[in-house]
Amino acid sequence: RHCFGNGALNDLNPEQLAAVQHGTGEEAHDQRPLLVIAGAGSGKTNTLAHRVAHLIRQGADPQRLMLLTFSRRAAQEMERRAGGVLHKTLGLPATQAPPGLPWSGTFHSIGSRLLREYSPRIGLDDSFTIHDRGDAEDLMGMVRHDIGLAESKKRFPLKGTCLGIYSRVVNTCEPLDQVLDGIYPWCAQWEDELRRLFGAYVEAKQQQNVLDYDDLLLFWAEMMGEPALARELGERFDHVLVDEYQDTNRLQSQILLAIKPTGQGVTVVGDDAQSIYSFRGATVRNILDFPGQFSQPARIVTLERNYRSTQPVLDASNAVIGAARERHAKNLWTDKSASQRAQLLLVPGEAEQARWVADEVLRQREAGSTLKSQAVLFRTGSHSAALELELARRDIPFVKFGGLKFLEAAHVKDMLAVLRFAQNPRGRMAGFRVLQLIAGIGQATATRLLDAMGEAAEAVETLAQFTPPAQARQEWEQFATLYARLQGAQVAWPADLELVRDWYLPQLERLHDDAQVRKLDVEQLVRLAAGYACRERFLTELTLDPPQATSDESGVPHLDEDYLILSTIHSAKGQEWKAVHVLNVVDGCIPSDMATGSAEDIEEERRLLYVAMTRARERLHLIVPQRFYVTQQAGGGDRHLYAGRTRFITEAMLEKFEQITWPPAHSASPGPGAQPQPQPLMQVRARARAAWR
Ligand code: ATP
Ligand code: MG
Where is this region: Disordered (predicted)? Predict the structure, then answer.
């Protein structure tokens, strides 16, 4: 149905085609960097996939293409799309797979691969492990304690805040005092202490041979500071292509610039109206400044035709973004006319909202739309709680993205920590976690042991020679044997993880009452492992871009079923569904009351609503509960708040919407209690979710 259907270039409009063919064929003389800046649903990602396919068809070596996307899922989707186009146009037999894209992924994951490969040349030990946010926070807390800040300074910022400040400084390349004044004014008094803390934190990471997320970009950028290495990398890749460029940060643009100073072979696509990650240090300046950043000016292509949404959906979305303070010069049009306007639903509270969505989702399914073609979007992971219960109660299967993550489950963390500890014996966060799983080993013993751990080669010996407390002798021997086997070269991946599982299951039984439920995740982790080439890739990819739901990308059986997507707006970026239901479109949620600080913050919330609305192809429902819980920061405690419709939809815009008030005419939903009990499977899933910490 879409241009991927037959994969031919003649499905592209002239502007898309220009972007796809830029710098090739008759235009080979024009090697300017390319910027495609265009509104939602105009085919940017599609164009990028076509460009990749076109380059390969023209003889480019897939090994020499670097494709940077926002998530691993997006990278896989791009690979699939480009592969589909190639398959058709190269006339490959159905049985032959199209060439893959070995260097596609997020900035962080490509960075970690390059760092590992070049580590000997930049003084990095190649057995480094990567800390996720949780580990990084814990290490920050530990360092803080070690240098005596925890005791002496009662109101010193929490470890999470400290990490936030540190991360912001690294990603924006701004000085600490500036970040403090601008974003964390209440921490400005601690500038000296923070500087000391961050110094010690960096030191600790180096001693333990661990990198946090930010280091992956930071070290990559530093590596590019070596002229010889920068040249080598620039020559190694003929093309660097980036999707969603509006959400990159300063470090990322520096890296891009360093790989390709002339801009030859650089393609970026994005939409300034969809920039929604400035809270993480991304800056829309990257895309705005792109045209003049290289040694030659960029070619700019804009796309104005929207292929995703119907005209009424587009009208409503355009009204919201049209009122933005910053002008986003976009003139989107579509030829998909429809009579159905976007709907604005007023409901009394969250319970009715949940009921309405469940009703509507089922009604759409009756009308022939699968659950998978619909999505429910919300500002924050916790906002879907009432809906999740309602869906479970009615046995409507769903998968949630962007909320609690599979890898945050304590038992999944335990398993991964064992692998990490084997890979890098100096990593103390993993070490602590693992050693204390052993019955009879407490914090003091674990500390003593970790202090004695040296390099990988000696680690096995250190553990073997250690005399455990008497009550831990047998458990200790089992663990030391496991550790030695994991260090040995003879165990192949993913058999490593099976060994870990066999060792871990008895600990799980001992530690958790709900071990049966947790076991499901453990088994799922083992299944997931089979999809990765080696232990290192598994650990890295999972840490950088974890599966966002228990069933995400893992080939578990129930993925074959039809299921509804629940997602935060941030995680829905770049995607589309036939019907989209947006929860809590009220002031205090969108814009979030956490963000109501500056005018810039508010504008980012407006763009967030725009991103949510532009995910819809045909049906768009914005739901406005009149009453909902928010955590009042100032007053303290939870309070019922009477919420009004979001300020981003003004009176003047209401004509773009069909307004529906509660109870809707077709509402025939019986109240709670009249519904059948959830099936066992749903209960297990609900409990498994509750097990995540
Ligand atoms: P976003 O800003 O949300 O990331 P986008 O600009 O990347 O959107 P795509 O996701 O690439 O847009 O495309 C939106 C939809 O339009 C997809 O379903 C895609 O297949 C379709 N599409 C894009 N270009 C064409 C075309 N030339 N003909 C038909 N359909 C198209
Ligand atoms: Mg896109």
Answer: 663-686
